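pasting BRO1 domain-containing protein for the record, 199 residues
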Amino acid sequence: CIDGAAEVAKSPKLVLERAAILYNLAVAHWSRGMLLPKADVEQIKTAARHFQIASGILDEVATFDVPAELDAKAPLPAELQPECAKALALTMLAQAQECFCDKAQVDGMAVGTRIKLLLGARDAYASASDAIAAAAASTPTATPLKRFKTWAEPPTRASQYKSEARAFWLAANPSPTPGVGLGLALALRAQGAAARAVA
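structre below
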């Protein structure tokens, strides 16, 4: 082992550089996922994979032990702070879940399956929304969070998928007064299945 190599590898500046490289790699995967058309099953699967990879990379960034400030003039970039990286990771994971919904639509899957996936997307975007709000509150200068919030719109998407799931359920159970108990049971069952699917 080269003398001093271990100390150099733990240098705050080197850790920061690694985190920055991984962040840029995550954004590259995210961008590729966003640019792929969602009308073809294989492209949807590829997009989902890109989002999943990006999410995993950002999860790794969130574990880096980067000092809050390297010095008084060089504060840690907001996107490399653990709260911000984790929020972005959850946003990209939600976008991967959205791809499953797109695939189900293109494949013409059964109503029950699509409801489960829609509720899964709702839950994923809700989690991303909560994480973004928490990170933004603790990191006032988190410009990347604001940008991703605008792009992904987690609160809007969560509400959208909840509405779509209800519409699918009503279409499958036409009735002027659909049973409240049945609807609740279906929603709870779907939530459990969605949670297992994204675990």
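Residues 1-5, 174-182 have pLDDT under 50 and may be disordered.
The first strand starts at residue 69 and ends at 71.
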